[in-house]
Structures are given as structure tokens and as C-alpha cells.
């Protein structure tokens, strides 16, 4: 007997969720707008989760906010911010899990890793921020989907750097999602769509409430400024494989020659100091740095060449700026 089966699929579409992407050098000050919110609105600040790629990033952000808020976050019961990752103390984990679910919670911002994911259902979260590009669109969809579960308007924001999008740090689909000039909602839904049977995405109206790309094209006349976007979005500033960003510094042949000599001298110093960083400066790496020097405008651009150490990237950027 033949058994007829049917496939029923539903795209994880969230019409009340607006998507934003922002190219960032990952300067902690990019989130000063949220600190200002906490200082101004305190316990009325919109509930926010900030997902970080690792524990170090999570801890650095938490400490930056803690110092900026001064003594407002010292008392556990009145704390405006919290942190949740696998190494967080049990008492703090329990506090975050218990307090953040309350509608009148004093806890307004949680810095978290993927550990703060399974089994979490808090309906009144209004913002989910990814501090660094997510590793896959499945992870992004699940984490961003924690916002707006009560049906109210909510936002998902990705702050990404060139390093986040480098090969091996995220999927190709995430890289395309962050770089596309097309509608982010359409791009995300197309990834999950199993067929092309005519399903159409329900897009918010006006377009400025859909995503950061649609916002650039909106002509409704009532577009509000997005405080979490530090500058007008410009997708041409996102590094591609050839580092052809359209923004560059002019270097003469003599300056390039001097840069290579300075890099060789720097490498010799690292060798004399028996620094492990010298292993990253092979001849091919030096040539690659010199070739792309006009387009290396921040530390993340240098790291995107394949270097691992932020300390090394900072020193190389200084050498480029000094020629």
C-alpha cells in the first residue's frame, strides 16, 4: 500500500520585527546610545538582550556598561544590567532567569552568549542585539526571534566587523545577509523557504519599519532616526574579498617600499623578543599587507587579512598610518 505524505512548512517570519545591520569597528562606544537610555529611563528602558560571540566579549561589554552606570547597578535587586554565560556564577544566573521574566523587572539589559537561549521565553523583550555577526542564519533567526513575542514592535540589530565576516567565522549566508542591499526580511525568509510555490513575505508598511535597507529607500516622509545606527548605512564600506571598499588612503610606491621595510624591522623586533606573534608575519603576509594597505582603515580590516592577534593588528595599523 502506498502511503501519501505531505510536507507542511512554515517560514519563521516575524512581521512585527524590524531588522537592522550596522558595519562597526566594534568600538564599545557604539552602544553608548543604550547606556544613555539606561541613564535616562532606568527601569523603563526597553528590555534588551545583547548576544556576544564569546565570553570575553560578553564580559568586556558588561564591565563597560557597569562603569558607565556607576553605582546604579551595584545592588543585585536593583541592577539594571546582567550577564549570562556558562561561567557566570550560579547566583547571578538564577537572578537573571528569575528577574528578567518579570513584567516589572528592574533588569533591563542582559549580555549573553548562546548559553542564554534554550528554554527562554520572555514575551516583552523589545530589542535583540548581536554584538558581532552570528555564525549562522538558523542561530540568528532563533535569537532575534526572542524579541517581540508579545506582538509589539521590536527590533533586531547586528553590529558586524570585517573579522566577523571573514572565512571560517560565519556562514556564507550570514556574510551575504550583512552585505546585501536587498530587503533583509526577504533575504532571511528566502533562506528558510523550501520551494518557490508563490509564497510572499508579509512586509510591514511603511517600508522604513521593515529593515535598514528598506529604510534607506523609504519615501513615507515620517521615517524616524534610528539611534542605534551611528551613521548612515553604506554597504560599499563592507569589505569584500579584494578589499575594494571605495574608501582608501593614497600610498605612493616609495611609501609602500618604506612600509615593507618597517614591517620587516617590526618582525625582527618580535623575533628578538621571542614573541609568538612573529609567526604570523611570514613574507606572503607582509606582501599581502603592503598590497592592501590603502584599504586597511581600522584594526578589523587588518585582522580580515587572516591575522589572529588584535595586538598585532593594532601595531600594523600604526605602521601604515606613520608612512
Quick take:
By secondary structure, this protein is of the alpha/beta class.
- Using only C-alpha atoms, the radius of gyration works out to 22 Å
The domain tally reads 2
User: What is the strand tally?
Assistant: 6
Provide the low-confidence segments as ranges.
231-245
Major sheet: arrangement of strands = 1-6-5-2-4-3
How would the global form be characterised?
globular
Count the helices. How many? Answer: 11
Architecture per CATH nomenclature, i.e. the level-2 architecture of the largest domain: 3-Layer(aba) Sandwich
What is the element string, with H for helices and E for strands?
EHEHEHEEHEHHHHHHH
Largest sheet features? 6 strands, parallel
CATH superfamily of the largest domain: P-loop containing nucleotide triphosphate hydrolases
Terminal CA distance reads 78 Å
Mean pLDDT: 82
Question: What percent of residues adopt helix (DSSP H or I)?
Answer: 25-40%
What structural category characterises the helix and strand content? alpha/beta
Our estimate of the beta-strand percent is: 5-15%
- CATH level-1 class of the largest domain: Alpha Beta
CATH topology of the largest domain: Rossmann fold
Domain Helicase C-terminal: 34-200
Pfam families: Helicase_C
EC number: 5.6.2.4
InterPro entries: Helicase_C-like, P-loop_NTPase
Characterization of this structure:
The protein has 2 domains: 17-229, Rossmann fold (3-Layer(aba) Sandwich), CATH 3.40.50; 253-322. The radius of gyration is 22 Å and the shape is globular. 35% of the residues lie in helices and 10% in strands. The N and C termini lie far apart (78 Å). Helix 8 (253-272) runs antiparallel to helix 9 (283-292). The protein has a 6-stranded parallel sheet with strand order 1-6-5-2-4-3, sandwiched between helices. The chain has helices at 32-41, 55-68, 90-99, 137-144, 172-179, 184-192, 212-217, 253-272, 283-292, 299-303, 310-322; strands at 17-23, 48-52, 81-84, 109-112, 127-131, 154-160. By secondary structure, the chain is of the alpha/beta class. The chain contains 11 helices and 6 strands. The longest helix has 20 residues, at 253-272. The model is unreliable at 231-245 (pLDDT under 50).
Amino acid at each position: 500500500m502506498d502511503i501519501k505524505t505531505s510536507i507542511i512548512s512554515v517560514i519563521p517570519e516575524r512581521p512585527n520585527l524590524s531588522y537592522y545591520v550596522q558595519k562597526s569597528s566594534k568600538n564599545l562606544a557604539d552602544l553608548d546610545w543604550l547606556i544613555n537610555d539606561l541613564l535616562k529611563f532606568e527601569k523603563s528602558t526597553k528590555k534588551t538582550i545583547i548576544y556576544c560571540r564569546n565570553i570575553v566579549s560578553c564580559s568586556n561589554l558588561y564591565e563597560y556598561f557597569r562603569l558607565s552606570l556607576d553605582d546604579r547597578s551595584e545592588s543585585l535587586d536593583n541592577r539594571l544590567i546582567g550577564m549570562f554565560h556558562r561561567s557566570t556564577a550560579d547566583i547571578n544566573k538564577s537572578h537573571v532567569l528569575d528577574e528578567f521574566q518579570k513584567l516589572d523587572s528592574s533588569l533591563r539589559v542582559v549580555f549573553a552568549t548562546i548559553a542564554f537561549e534554550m528554554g527562554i521565553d520572555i514575551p516583552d523583550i523589545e530589542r535583540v542585539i548581536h554584538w558581532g555577526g552570528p555564525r549562522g542564519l538558523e542561530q540568528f533567526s532563533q535569537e532575534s526571534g526572542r524579541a517581540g513575542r508579545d506582538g509589539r514592535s521590536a527590533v533586531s540589530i547586528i553590529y558586524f566587523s570585517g573579522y566577523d565576516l571573514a572565512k571560517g567565522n560565519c556562514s556564507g549566508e550570514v556574510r551575504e545577509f550583512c552585505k546585501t542591499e536587498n530587503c533583509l526580511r526577504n533575504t532571511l525568509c528566502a533562506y528558510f523557504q523550501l520551494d518557490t510555490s508563490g509564497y510572499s513575505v508579509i512586509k510591514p508598511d511603511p517600508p522604513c519599519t521593515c529593515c535598514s535597507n528598506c529604510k534607506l529607500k523609504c519615501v513615507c516622509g515620517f521615517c524616524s532616526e534610528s539611534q542605534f545606527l551611528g551613521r548612515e548605512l553604506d554597504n560599499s564600506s563592507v569589505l569584500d574579498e579584494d578589499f575594494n571598499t571605495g574608501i582608501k588612503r593614497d600610498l605612493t610606491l616609495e611609501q609602500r617600499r618604506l612600509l615593507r621595510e618597517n614591517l620587516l624591522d617590526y618582525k625582527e623586533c618580535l623575533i628578538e623578543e621571542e614573541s609568538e606573534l612573529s609567526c604570523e608575519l611570514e613574507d606572503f603576509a607582509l606582501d599581502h599587507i603592503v598590497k592592501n594597505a590603502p584599504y586597511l582603515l581600522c584594526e578589523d580590516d587588518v585582522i580580515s587579512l587572516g591575522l589572529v592577534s588584535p595586538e598585532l593588528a593594532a601595531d600594523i595599523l600604526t605602521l601604515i598610518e606613520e608612512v
